[in-house]
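Why does residue order matter? Because the sequence determines the fold. Keep that principle in mind as you read this record.
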Amino acid sequence: MSFLEKTKARAKANIKTIVLPETNDVRTIEACDKAIAEGIANIILVGKKDEISAYEKDYPNVAKATVIDPENYEKFDEMTALLVELRKAKGMTEEKAVSLLKGDYLTFGVTLVKMGIADGMVSGACHATADVLRPALQIIKAKPGVSTVSSFFVMVVPNCDLGENGTFVFSDCGLEQNPTSDKLAAIACSAADSFRLLIESEPRVAMLSHSTKGSAKHADVDKVTAAVKMAQELRPDLMIDGELQADAAMVESVGKSKAPGSPVAGKANVLVFPDLDAGNIGYKLVQRLAKAEAYGPATQGLAKPVNDLSRGCSADDIVGVIAITCVQAQANG
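Structure:
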């Protein structure tokens, strides 16, 4: 059974409610139809009922979704009061909150998650990452004890015996531009937890660099080595090591040669990149050259899951992220 099939099966075992706010995009409507048909989630669509109902001829399962129109929602006053309370220190007024909730479906969707009306949100098919995550960071905020919200991809590489039978978590590939050592340490810990949750195997975390165990001297290397020490102190229960070059992290013979005695070298299944340039370039190279399936960018470290999409995503991609979001929501209880 593939990673996606397993994730969908887990989603079906404990149905969660996911809000999809981008109902002006037909890919969202098609994904709603497919997710309901496959029984992986209950779906809330944000928008006008007559406009969404018009899709039912081509996508009949859309009729089974819950449609919430911000203009006519019985809990709108409650939402407004909550948003004012959460953001009053930043100058939020009732008038601003009403305008924001009615004018920005992403903020409306995130507020539904905050209130517990939905368990998670998936968006980003036609919005930039910043637009998706800004309201999530402002309203849902980080989990207690998590200092840095970050992102990850699940990478499934065909015909590959590296990682966890070709499956990896790559982080951070979509959010933190140039993380400091303490942020990098937090990303490593979150990525390990994401791997354990979604892959259901023991994470082996490699913190990547252009250097392995002091083979090069540079401030960029120092940042990673400091992060390794911090991560190991934060989570002594995890296998985390570095700094490691990519081949030393993944290839057993190279790992033994360059980092003998490392519990991670040559066996890594979680790759933590030193900055966003490396992470974003790395996942796209693996996706295109190795024909890998790339699921994400998913968000880690939020109190409740809100996940971003690539603007080039297909409806099937959205369904996959819905399933991942459901499993993340299950972990919240």
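The chain has a mean pLDDT of 93.
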